[in-house]
Amino acid sequence: MKLRPDGKPTEEYRIAVLASGRGSNLQALLGAIAAGPLPARVVGVFSDKPASGAIALAREAGIANVALRPRDFADRDAHDEALFSAVAAVQPDLIVCAGYLRIISAASVRRFEGRMINIHPSLLPKYPGLDTHARALAAGDAEHGASVHVVVPELDAGPLLSQVRIPVLAGDDAAALAARLLPREHALLSGTCALLATGWMDISRDPVVFDGQPLRAPLVLNDDDTFREG
């Protein structure tokens, strides 16, 4: 995306959000847009759960939304074809999987190659999949965190864009660790989307480009929500 001399984008950057749960990451993105750090607009929210908090939030905010239950379709491919056709209709520059809990069909991933990211609650490549907080505790890890990565057909295996780290504290259980990580996840996702919206990062390239150079390691989110190279 081209930038004006004042650093703002010359065109609206359009984000579609996929979510299955309460919508806290969606709320974080909307907050960053309203406050200014994220120069973009959420143009659609999509879900596999009509009763999800994310869909309720989209309706309250007047954002276009579509929720399709997988059980209403013959198989995963049929569900994803319908859902991602709805995504395509809002013409997103970026698709953000923000707590979307279904594995996306390979055909749908390829349809939006280089335009889809996911936030995952672990320091990938550690702990792809579910129950990441409990798995980090069971392994005796000294630190935990979250990662933003490009979506590819393989589960949680795409190029890493950014990460945030927090210490594992004595007495932590999975719930406490998840609760302490959540606000840092929000900052990580919003900050990474801002890098994409302003053109500092380009995931359509292979390898990913950051500040005009290949991204050789995921960026690290600092305590003040700035990024440093890893």
Search tags:
three-stranded antiparallel β-sheet, alpha/beta, nine-stranded mixed β-sheet, globular, 230 residues
Give a structural overview:
By secondary structure, this protein is an alpha/beta fold. Helix content is 31%, strand content 22%. It contains six helices and twelve strands. It has helices at 24-35, 53-61, 76-89, 106-111, 132-138, 174-197, and strands at 14-18, 41-47, 65-67, 94-97, 116-120, 143-150, 160-167, 201-202, 209-210, 213-214, 219-221, 227-228. It has a nine-stranded mixed β-sheet with strand order 3-2-1-4-5-6-7-11-12, with helices on both faces.
Largest sheet: 9 strands, mixed
Number of strands: 12
The average pLDDT is 95
Helix content: 25-40%
Task: Please give the count of helices.
Answer: 6
What is the beta-strand fraction? Answer: 15-25%
Question: In angstroms, what separates the terminal alpha carbons?
Answer: 24 Å
Question: Which structural class fits the helix and strand makeup?
Answer: alpha/beta
| Radius of gyration from CA coordinates | 17 Å
